[in-house]
Amino acid sequence: MLNTLMARTVTSFVCQSCGAVTARWAGRCESCGEWNTIVEEVGAPPLGSQAKKPAKGRAVALEPLLGSTEEAKRLTTGLAEFDRVCGGGLVPGSALLVGGDPGIGKSTLLLQVSAALAAKGHAVAYITGEEALAQIRLRAGRLGLGEAPVQVAAETHLGAILATLDSGTPPALAIIDSIQTLWSDALDSAPGTVAQVRACAQDLVRFAKRRGTAIALVGHVTKDGQIAGPRVVEHMVDAVLYFEGERGHQFRILRAVKNRFGATDEIGVFEMGDRGLAEVPNPSALFLDDRDQGVPGTAVFAGIEGTRPLLVEIQALTAPTSFGTPRRAVVGWDSGRLAMVLAVLESRCGVPFGGHDVYLNVAGGLRITEPAADLAVAAALLSSLAGTPLPSDAIVLGEISLSGAIRPVSQMEARLKEAVKLGFRSALGPPAPKLTVEGMALESHATLTHLVKTFAPLPKATARRDQENTGSP
Known about the structure:
- The longest helix is centred in the middle third of the chain and has 18 residues, at about 195-210.
- The relative contact order is 0.09.
- The protein has 13 helices and 21 strands.
- The chain is of the alpha/beta class and about 475 residues long.
- It folds into three domains: about 10-40, no CATH class; about 80-280, 3-Layer(aba) Sandwich (Rossmann fold), CATH 3.40.50; about 285-465, 2-Layer Sandwich (Ribosomal Protein S5, domain 2).
């Protein structure tokens, strides 16, 4: 009888990358495919050998879908770019997860956000588990925020943090830097493990919903750029923001990949300087400020990031290769997408790239994900290969299919209007007969072969293929 009442220690093997639980240790996780990420963790012991009988649930009231609902109130910080990404400001009781590479400026951004919100009379608590209070004060002094009425603390114990936030009037915003440093005494595992991150995030989100405090969690990222820890944390929070940028560039991009209170894929642009992060209200003009005009291999792409049209320069360089396998180097774009564009140019248009190294770069440190940049990349590649520069007042946009056809893109009118504001007068893109934008001349291209003819005469193999397709002699 005594043995059945004694607590038994339950151990499990958990992947530190995706959070999958297995019965035994393995070198490779079967769920995410990562190697050497499975770690043995000790779970909470049961109170007996028999499972506890579940309590009978109570019936909940079902309400009709039709009805009036008030829009969620917002806490505007005053940083327009941050408020834009959040959907118009912070929602009380919401939970945000902010991720980014080490040293990219996550702590700097959140410290500026907390100081701006505190300057409006709201109570703000900044709790750090990675730095000492002296380091926080030194950073605030460098940013000119030393006199901001922000309450700071250095603590990693979850129970102490919740007790502090729950005492008295709860703050309007609480920043936890970072979630991987917290630990709960309800678990025996070390801080940063999947079990600790999941349990601490769950308790913090529950506190935010109960007391109406907006919680901002800082999360570390893996070598692949994903937020470390279990993916279930991203499902628990209301918004997931990634802070992106290259160390060699001064621009920083705050991107929303999930937002229950606003648009996803919305971006905010900041510029890192001596006084911290400065907002960039017109990023298109800043990205194109130092572009190389009249140089072969450059094309200006008119993209859409969230609800904002954004113009950025795409740079391409082709050079004869010295090795058997040509090199393909990409910065700011999908390497698989580049391989597809090169394959279409060779197969459908007869343009040889097999003997050339290809280097592609998106200027300013921005990362482009939408397929509308296919035509701009192809135009930059053809310009570099032919040595013919594109017109300096032209933008390029369009999606390329595997057949070589150029497909239309969404929100084309907004892209063209943004280009007109910045002085562009022509656009190379897919056919759009019903679209008219004042001050913009649209040069339509139905196929990629049509665009190739504007740079250089086609090879004989391509001309013969065109004759076979059209049936002309």
